[in-house]
């Protein structure tokens, strides 16, 4: 099988034997692989595939070690299960599953731990699964952390991203938002897409007027945007930060208006509150089955063109989830 790894930011296609699933693992023949911003950012400091040309994927054969794996969401069909998996979990060959793979997600076949796996319902495609489940869980969890109340004004940053475009929809579906502001880097290019998903206004990060102060903001950008976001909140407003982009805030910006900032991490919910994690996942599928929550796939690239997929996310040109297809 093929897998893609990276060494100092340079992506490498390797041809290796298909692995056998161990205890608690499923071997999944991947049909769709979700590309995540944290993975793209992970490669960026090296200045390789994340910052250089997009044709850096080369075939080095199977060297058995060295290059590091790339994780991500996967969806596909179970080919084999590890010892005792069928008895303990009910998963069996032929099942359609999705989940977050921490090992080699960029591959023809991925090892997925059963704790991270869930069934893909009949009404969903593999693309739907990688676009909805993990990004939707992040979006729904961030919204829950904001404690939304019906009729409030919501501000969503990175609103056209894989998680952001779902957070925008959930702010109204789940939070009952009365007014939703979508913030992006390029409002002209993304405005039609976001308004079709329910945004009442689309603004740029550098705009001087974001409209009425927001009751809460869901932020996937971080960095220098944190200050303007807090200043854009109404008194008592809440900022939920779920970005890997870092950033700092001055305490007086919170104290003056009794504003608050909450950091959200979906991994902690998965580890410490698995029942809630599962309930959120089922809610996402229900909303999708009803046609209310619409996951969007911005582009699908062949596996060997992973660098092109990274380049699209790096340029912030995607409208929804970016997917690889083996």
UniProtKB/TrEMBL annotation:
Transmembrane region(s): none
Pfam families with a match to the protein in the record: ADH_N, ADH_zinc_N_2
UniProt keyword terms in alphabetical order: NADP, Oxidoreductase
InterPro entries found in the cross-reference section: ADH-like_N, ER, GroES-like_sf, NAD(P)-bd_dom_sf
Organism from which the protein derives: Streptomyces cacaoi
One Gene Ontology term, aspect cellular component: cytosol
SUPFAM superfamilies in UniProt: GroES-like, NAD(P)-binding Rossmann-fold domains
Lineage summary: Bacteria, Bacillati, Actinomycetota, Actinomycetes, Kitasatosporales
Region annotated Disordered, chain positions: 1-24, 45-67
Superkingdom of origin organism: Bacteria
Protein name: NADPH:quinone reductase
Every Enoyl reductase (ER) domain range: 9-324
Biased composition range(s): Acidic residues: 53-65
Entry GO MF terms: mRNA 3'-UTR AU-rich region binding; NADPH binding; quinone reductase (NADPH) activity
């Amino acid at each position: 099988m093929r897998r893609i790894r990276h060494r100092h930011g340079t992506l490498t296609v390797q041809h290796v034997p298909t692995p056998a699933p161990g205890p608690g693992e499923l071997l999944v023949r991947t049909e769709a692989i979700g590309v995540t911003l944290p993975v793209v950012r992970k490669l960026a400091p090296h200045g390789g595939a994340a910052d250089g040309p997009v044709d850096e994927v080369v075939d080095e054969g199977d060297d058995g070690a060295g290059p590091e794996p790339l994780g991500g969401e996967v969806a596909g069909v179970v080919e084999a299960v590890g010892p005792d998996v069928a008895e303990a979990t009910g998963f069996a060959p032929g099942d359609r599953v999705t989940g977050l793979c921490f090992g080699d997600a960029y591959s023809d076949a991925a090892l997925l731990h059963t704790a991270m796996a869930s069934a893909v319902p009949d009404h969903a495609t593999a693309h739907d699964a990688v676009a909805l489940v993990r990004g939707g869980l992040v979006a729904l969890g961030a919204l829950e952390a904001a404690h939304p109340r019906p009729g409030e004004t919501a501000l969503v940053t990175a609103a056209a991203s894989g998680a952001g475009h779902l957070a925008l929809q959930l702010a109204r579906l789940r939070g009952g938002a009365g007014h939703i502001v979508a913030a992006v880097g390029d409002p002209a290019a993304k405005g039609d897409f976001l308004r079709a998903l329910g945004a009442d206004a689309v603004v740029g990060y550098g705009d001087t007027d974001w409209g009425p102060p927001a009751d809460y903001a869901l932020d996937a950008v971080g960095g220098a945007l944190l200050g303007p976001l807090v200043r854009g909140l109404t008194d008592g407003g809440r900022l939920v930060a779920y970005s890997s982009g870092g950033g700092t805030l001055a305490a007086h910006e919170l104290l003056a208006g009794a504003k608050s900032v909450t950091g959200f991490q979906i991994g902690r919910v998965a580890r410490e509150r698995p029942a809630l994690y599962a309930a959120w996942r089922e809610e996402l599928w229900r909303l999708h089955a009803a046609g209310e929550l619409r996951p969007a796939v911005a582009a699908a690239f062949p596996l060997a063109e992973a660098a092109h997929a990274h380049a699209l996310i790096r340029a912030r040109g995607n409208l929804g989830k970016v997917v690889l297809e083996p």
